[in-house]
Amino acid sequence: MAICLMVSSFGVAKAQSGLQVGANLGPTMGVSVKYEFAANQAIEGIAGYNIPHDGPSFKFMYEYQVALVDALKLYMGGGINIGGLHMNHHHGDFAFGLVPTIGLDYAFRGVPVNFAFGYEPAINFGTTKTWTDVAFKVRYRF
Fold this sequence. Notes:
There is one protein chain. This protein is mostly beta strands and 142 residues long. The chain has a single domain (16-141), classed as Porin. It is built from one helix and nine strands. The protein has one helix at residues 2-8; strands at 19-25, 28-38, 41-50, 55-69, 72-85, 93-107, 113-119, 123-124, 134-141. An eight-stranded antiparallel β-barrel has the order 1-2-3-4-5-6-7-9. Strand 2 (28-38) and strand 3 form a beta hairpin.
């Protein structure tokens, strides 16, 4: 609620640059940075901590976006995952693998905020896969 009030105090948004920065909430808690470099294409980076698997997680993804209705977009794509798992044990595991992604993104009109909900499993090579990684994102659009 406080975030919405603070953001609404900025008034009507100026021309958007395509850059979005905000929170990534879910099993991986952290920061999401997204850059829309074309009307239907974006790249996203997520730096966070995977709570169920006790380790840092870095995801870099390409996303293709399809406008559905009003300001709602479907996005899909993929990229890579780099991080560590089970870091609270004596021997942690290095994680490297692929990250397919699919989700919905809603951008509010007149307020530079968007919400996104997506599925981002990490299919790691040689170690634990994180099939349950969903994310709710709140981002500010610059």
